[in-house]
Amino acid sequence: MGEGERLHEQRRRRFWGILGWLVVIGLVAGFFSGFVAGFIDGSGGQGTPGLKAIGGAGVALIAVAVAYGSWRFFASVDEVEVADNLWASLIGFYAYAILFPAWWSLSKIGLTAEPDHWIIYGVALLTATAAYFYRKWQSR
User: Fold this and answer.
1) Share of residues in the chain with pLDDT > 90 (%)
2) Quick check: 61 pLDDT over 90?
3) Contact 74, 11 (CB under 8 A)
4) What whole-number distance in Å separates Cα of residue 61 and Cα of residue 65?
5) Residue 19: how many other CB atoms lie within 10 Å
6) How far apart are the first and last CA of the chain?
7) pTM exceeds 0.85
8) Which pLDDT does position 7 carry in this prediction?
9) Which pLDDT belongs to residue 117?
10) 85-89 long-range Cβ contacts below 8 angstroms, 24+ apart
11) What is the pLDDT of residue 57?
12) Mean pLDDT of all residues in the chain?
């Protein structure tokens, strides 16, 4: 194996390792946040201060982990991966930037209900993911 192939293999291993850790952190954080949210919801929205503190700490941990994981991800990938992610992010942002004002305007003139931000968020993420995979498919 040549030097370039060895470096490429190291980079790919680091790439998948970072993604793997992000998935593990997301699964654990999702489980615990779902547990805390379900417990608080089951108690009529009256969680204990300790449980609320655990929930708040979990949210802060997720935010820090995503920011750090994103930084590590972009520091370890090549310029092609960065470009694919930037294009996908831009397209996902445009999906949100177009969908929200359109839905909001239609709600103000009485044609639809108020915008549901979770639906718009989901559509934006799905659009960004589709754009990412389209770029990957185009470059093969």
Assistant:
1) 39
2) no
3) no
4) 6
5) 12
6) 23
7) no
8) 82
9) 94
10) 85/132, 87/131, 87/132, 87/135, 88/128, 88/129, 88/131, 88/132, 88/135, 89/128
11) 81
12) 87
Looking from the CA of 4 toward its CB, the CA atoms found within 13 Å total 0
Distances (CA, A) of 126 to 7, 10, 45, 130, 132: 32, 30, 31, 6, 10
DSSP-derived letter for residue 115 is P
**Mean pLDDT, range 128-138, rounded to an integer:** 94
Place of tokens 């996902």: 92
Q: Which amino acid appears at position 92 of this protein? A: G
Sequence letter at residue 125: L
Query: Quick check: 18 and 74 in contact, CB under 8 A?
Result: no
| Residue of 98, 73, 84, 80 lying closest to 128 (CA atoms) | 84
72 close to 11: Cβ distance less than 8 angstroms: no
> Which contiguous run of DSSP H or E holds residue 100?
helix 79-108
For residue 44, give the amino acid letter: G
Q: Enumerate residues 6+ apart whose C-beta is below 8 A from 77.
A: 11, 15, 85
Q: Is residue 46 over pLDDT 80?
A: no
Q: Which residue has the tokens 């954080």?
A: 29
CB 65 within 8 Å of CB 25: yes
